[in-house]
């Protein structure tokens, strides 16, 4: 076999292996989508969105309370994590080389690796124990803590990508340092930061473990953030481990909805970026 | 463009005469530099600079790459303050006041000393917001005052006609030359007394360059201009005075004509005639 032929064959094999790897990587996603639609599709009707859960044995019912609960929980998480995370990221990008900044950065990376159930226990001790009640606030705190390191690091990294010339331009016009950050540098980095926030939200929207002993669950309609609240993930978990076929179907539908919410967050991240970039860059 | 400029005689320059052109002989010292040294950490890059930059004249700074021209102009509005480990020693006076004296309000100083950078750096905002930025952060809220200032500044920067119908569009959609003129308009909007320009035309085509040079001619009626350039013809065309820098020192400083036609120093002659190196 000539050298050229051998080279061509090796090249082909390598290409085929790469293509196979791509397929294998996409397979789980495809299968997840296939199964949730197949199993959950039949339970996914208008009632699922508008009705409350029915007692065992009664067919039908929906997860209206859990849908609203999930939205409230991730809203609270964003409320806690976004202001703190953004300010923290601004500090890190403004004072990148101080000992304090190294410590904060390290802490954020460690926090990012802490298992979510540990964060849940922490929020339990911090918020639930003192008032002796599960609450949406406690769940929001737990999810907020999980979001925090992602928001901190994306904010920092995107701010540092802003060309230094913009800062100089602002200072040369008589801006103070903080003014230059908030009026020029932060807006320039905003599309990217927003994506980071939405990605972080998508990540925590799928969390179950930290909610089990913070937000707990609620069979009833509740939008009171001082009370326990239902969430899609916990509801799916509860229904999935139950022995009832009807609940299993609902669990699948809930899983399908979760996937859709996460997909929607990812898509809105992209749309938002494109919108803002049209104003920002060209 | 000349007409656009002359129709708005000094609309922004309240308190300064715009009707009389200062004769070249009257040399009021606007910026006085005495024994100014500059260090980046351990490296000393400016050595005992002495210069008297006159009011309402164009002073060109020329010299080989790395000789410290940018460092020097950035010292005049203390832009180097933001570089860690960098420090200046000596005196730079503006209107007789040392800007490196303790208690100097740097923000106020930078309002009086505008700067146009070598690489145009429009903000990722609309054209309007770019020009209005300096006034807004200075506390101007009045919509009419802002509109007027934006229009006048764009006219003086010879950009108004090209952008008047798309003030709300992103500044980043402008061409390179337009962006540079926008940066000039932005600097003019806050009505500084001194304008520092660090190679403002280095990235521009000949037509845009000509526009900027004409602009500098117009502007010197009201502003004291310091311009860094690598282009000898440009220095000869636009400036009244020229300072030749080399290795962090001022080798020769004087009338542009003299520097180019009959320099005192051999080094200056070699450099301006391109025989350098
Ligand atoms: N931020 C910095 N940190 C350390 N050294 C610097 C810094 N900026 C400039 N220098 C050094 O200072 C010297 C003068 O640089 P400067 O930028 O003032 O030169 P220049 O005359 O403007 O050159 P050019 O014509 O290429 O723009 C150079 O040796 C350069 O390497
Ligand atoms: Mg330079």
Keywords:
A: 282 residues, mainly alpha, 11 helices, B: 277 residues, alpha/beta, four-stranded antiparallel sheet, 10 strands, 35% helix, 24% strand, binds adenosine-5'-triphosphate, binds magnesium ion
What does this structure look like?
The complex is a heterodimer of chains A (282) and B (277). Chain A is mostly helical and 282 residues long. Helix content of chain A is 77%, strand content 0%. The model of chain A has no long low-confidence stretch (mean pLDDT 90). By secondary structure, chain B is α/β, with parallel strands linked by helices. Chain B has eleven helices and ten strands. In chain B, helix 8 links the parallel strand 7 (194-198) and strand 8. Chain B starts with a helix and ends in a 5-residue tail after the last helix. At the A-B interface, helix 7, helix 8 and helix 11 of A face helix 3, helix 4 and helix 7 of B. Magnesium ion binds at residues 69-70, 198 of chain B.
In short:
The complex is a heterodimer of chains A (282) and B (277). Chain A is mostly helical.
Secondary structure layout:
The complex is a heterodimer of chains A (282) and B (277).
Chain A lengths: L2 H38 L5 H5 L13 H31 L4 H15 L2 H16 L4 H26 L2 H9 L4 H29 L3 H4 L19 H9 L4 H36 L2
Helix pairs in contact in A: 1-11, 3-6, 3-8, 3-10, 4-6, 5-6, 6-8, 7-8, 8-11, 10-11
Chain B lengths: L1 H5 L22 E12 L2 E12 L3 E5 L6 H8 L9 E9 L2 E2 L7 H7 E4 L10 H11 L5 H14 L3 H4 L12 H14 L4 E5 L7 H14 L4 E5 L3 H7 L2 E6 L2 E7 H6 L4 H7 L5
Parallel strand pairs in B: 3-8, 3-9, 6-7, 7-8
Antiparallel strand pairs in B: 1-2, 1-4, 4-5, 9-10
Helix pairs in contact in B: 4-5, 4-7, 5-7
The complex binds adenosine-5'-triphosphate (ATP) and magnesium ion.
């Amino acid at each position: 076999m000539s050298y050229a032929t051998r080279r061509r064959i090796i090249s082909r094999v390598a290409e085929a292996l790469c293509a196979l790897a791509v397929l294998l990587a996409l397979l789980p996603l495809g299968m997840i989508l296939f199964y949730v639609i197949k199993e959950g599709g039949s339970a996914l009707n208008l009632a699922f969105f508008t009705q409350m859960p029915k007692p065992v044995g009664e067919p039908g019912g929906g997860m209206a309370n859990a849908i609203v609960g999930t939205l409230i929980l991730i809203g609270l998480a964003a409320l806690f994590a976004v202001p703190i995370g953004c300010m923290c990221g601004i500090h890190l990008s403004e004072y990148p080389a101080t000992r304090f900044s190294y410590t904060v950065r390290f802490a954020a990376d460690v926090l990012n690796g802490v298992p979510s159930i540990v964060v849940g226990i922490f929020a339990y001790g911090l918020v639930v124990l003192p008032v002796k009640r599960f609450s949406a606030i406690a769940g929001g705190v737990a999810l907020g803590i999980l979001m925090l390191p992602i928001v901190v690091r994306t904010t920092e990294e995107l701010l540092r990508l802003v060309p230094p010339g913009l800062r100089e331009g602002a200072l040369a016009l008589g801006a103070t340092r903080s003014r230059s950050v908030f009026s020029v540098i932060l807006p320039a980095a905003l599309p990217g930061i927003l994506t980071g926030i939405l990605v972080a939200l998508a990540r925590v929207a799928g969390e179950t473990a930290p909610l089990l002993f913070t937000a707990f669950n609620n069979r009833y309609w509740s939008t009171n953030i001082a009370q326990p609240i239902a969430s899609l993930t916990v509801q799916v978990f509860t229904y999935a481990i139950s022995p009832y076929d009807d609940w299993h179907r609902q669990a699948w539908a809930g899983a399908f909805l979760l996937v859709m919410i996460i997909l929607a967050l990812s898509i809105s991240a992209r749309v938002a970026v494109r919108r803002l970039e049209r104003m920002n860059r060209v | 463009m000349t007409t656009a400029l002359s129709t708005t005689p000094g609309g922004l320059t309240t308190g300064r005469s715009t009707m009389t052109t200062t004769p070249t002989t009257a040399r009021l010292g606007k910026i006085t530099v005495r024994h100014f040294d500059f260090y980046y950490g351990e490296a000393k890059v400016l050595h005992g600079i002495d210069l008297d930059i006159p009011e309402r004249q164009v002073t060109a700074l020329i010299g080989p790459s790395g000789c410290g021209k940018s460092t020097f102009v950035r010292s005049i509005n203390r832009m180097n303050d933001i570089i860690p480990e960098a420090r200046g020693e000596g005196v730079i006076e503006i209107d007789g006041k040392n800007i490196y004296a303790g208690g100097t309000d740097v923000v106020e100083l930078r309002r009086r000393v505008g700067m146009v950078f070598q690489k145009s750096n429009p903000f990722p905002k609309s054209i309007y917001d770019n020009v209005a930025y300096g006034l807004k952060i200075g506390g101007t809220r009045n919509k009419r005052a802002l509109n007027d200032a934006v229009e006048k500044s764009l006219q003086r920067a010879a950009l108004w006609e090209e952008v008047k119908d798309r003030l709300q569009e992103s500044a980043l959609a402008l061409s390179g030359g337009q962006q540079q003129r926008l940066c000039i308009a932005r600097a003019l909007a806050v009505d500084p007394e001194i304008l520092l320009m660090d190679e403002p035309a280095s990235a521009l085509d000949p037509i845009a360059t000509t526009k900027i040079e004409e602009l500098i001619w117009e502007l010197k009626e009201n502003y004291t201009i310091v311009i860094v350039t690598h282009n000898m013809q440009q220095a000869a065309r636009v400036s009244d005075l020229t300072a030749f820098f080399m290795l962090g020192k001022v080798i020769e400083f004087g009338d542009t004509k003299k520097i180019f036609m009959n320099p005192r120093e051999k080094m200056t002659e070699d450099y301006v005639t391109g025989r350098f190196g």
